[in-house]
């Protein structure tokens, strides 16, 4: 059975999609832009945008009954692959050393709202 996850602690979807869906004991988040819900704006640097995207993923997972330590797979979409190292520096702080999730990361032509990064995750519950 599928359950839609929605929280006001993260930016609302900007299109016809859910923040996340739960299927059995798995949570699938939609890609999270680095939008600060307090201001509606995105930070200026790749480091700050990576942190904001991951904070948005974190609150959605928590609403679903999961957490960052239960993430098993992420996908990172970058506007510019030259930002890969800077993104990695921030990304690593959100996960336990030695227990990093599987990940794909690649450069895309363009992201919504001209973001520098967008991150999605798959996590388990329990």
Describe the structure.
The chain is α+β, with helices and mostly antiparallel strands and 126 residues long. The protein has a single domain, classed as RutC-like (60s Ribosomal Protein L30, Chain: A, 2-Layer Sandwich). The chain is built from 2 helices and 6 strands; from the N terminus they run βββαβαββ. It has helices at 46-63, 84-91, and strands at residues 2-5, 20-23, 26-29, 71-78, 102-107, 117-124. Strands 1-2-3-6-4-5 form a 6-stranded mixed beta sheet, covered by helices on one side. Strand 4, helix 2 and strand 5 form a beta-alpha-beta unit. Helix 1 (46-63) crosses helix 2 (84-91). The two termini are 16 Å apart. The mean pLDDT is 97.
Main attributes of the structure:
21% helix, 126 residues, alpha+beta, 27% strand, globular, 60s Ribosomal Protein L30, Chain: A
Write the layout of secondary structure elements.
Layout lengths: L1 E4 L14 E4 L2 E4 L16 H18 L7 E8 L5 H8 L10 E6 L9 E8 L2
Parallel strand pairs: 4-5
Antiparallel strand pairs: 1-2, 2-3, 3-6, 4-6
Helix pairs in contact: 1-2
Structure summary, number of beta strands:
6
* Domain module tally: 1
Arithmetic mean pLDDT = 97
Strand content: 25-35%
Class in CATH? Alpha Beta
The CATH architecture classification is 2-Layer Sandwich
Category by helix and strand content: alpha+beta
Overall 3D geometry? globular
**Share of helix, binned:** 10-25%
Q: Name the CATH superfamily classification.
A: RutC-like
Oligomeric state of the chains present here: single chain
CATH fold field value: 60s Ribosomal Protein L30, Chain: A
């Amino acid at each position: 059975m599928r359950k839609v996850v929605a929280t006001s602690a993260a930016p609302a979807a900007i299109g016809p999609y859910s923040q996340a869906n739960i299927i059995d004991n798995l949570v699938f988040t939609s890609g999270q832009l680095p939008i600060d819900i307090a201001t509606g704006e995105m930070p200026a640097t790749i480091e700050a945008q990576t942190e904001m995207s991951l904070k948005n993923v974190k609150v959605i997972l928590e609403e679903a009954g999961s957490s960052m330590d239960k993430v098993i797979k992420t996908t990172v979409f970058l506007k510019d692959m030259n930002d890969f190292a800077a993104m990695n520096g921030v990304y690593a702080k959100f996960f336990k050393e030695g227990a990093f999730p599987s990940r794909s990361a690649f450069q895309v032509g363009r992201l919504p709202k001209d973001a520098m990064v967008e991150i999605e995750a798959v996590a388990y519950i329990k």
